[in-house]
Amino acid sequence: MTYVIILAVSLLLCAIGFWRYVYFFSVGYGFAVAGIGITLLILFRDVLTPVGCIACVLFIIYGARLGGYLMAREMKNAAYNKILKPENDRSKSIPMGVKFAIWISCAILYFLQTSPFTFRLENTANLVADGASMIAPDTAAAWVGLVMMALGILLEILADAQKTAAKKKNPGRFVDTGLYRIVRCPNYLGELLLWAGVFIAGIPYLQGALQWIIAILGLLGITYVMFSGARRLEQRQDKNYGDDPVYQEYVKTVPIMIPLIPLYSVKNWRAFVA
Hints:
- The protein is mainly alpha-helical and about 270 residues long.
- Helices cover about 70% and strands about 0% of the residues.
- The protein is globular and about 65 Å long.
- The mean pLDDT is about 90.
């Protein structure tokens, strides 16, 4: 029943994508993760350890900030609305059956991403129900994962703030300041760090092959989404700034997502078409 409730929350909150197609992947994503965090806090309030409690709060902070930020950006930023216009126009021609399939797929992915902590809390609750005298303390891996989660969220917040400030100063130029000197997609790097942290924090508590498979699928799924997003961003930036010699030098010397890894382009990686 726990898993049905979590999935139902994810479905409900990412259904905002039926209003605007891109919201399945953006605003609905943030709100679904925040809703799952709230739901976990309520369902497992009696078995929460410090790491479990903080992780749920981080889900809420992450999701509410992301969903609110993306919605505010779209409503207030005319330039960003211009970028999204082709997507919004295309969404009008997408059959309802296809939208329904995307909605279900997104909701399942968000469930998979948060599953390490869902399993952790569910397994702990089952031990207590079976008569365990005490709740097992948080492991070192759990704390390491929690720190990674917090750092990932902080990285995303800083990257978004730096990009917003840079675009206000020079709307027609690509961003290569601050974190963007290290990687070209620091917000996507933060996303990967966050969900890798969720997975690592949940590792000591996973039970059985099915839980492991679900948790791994969640991590692989968001990794695919991030590289797919980086591919689309690179193609869009090449179209907008490709004739700029400074931009050409920037993309040749700054990794696209992972620091110190000489991966400078994914635009021709057809495996990440989405």
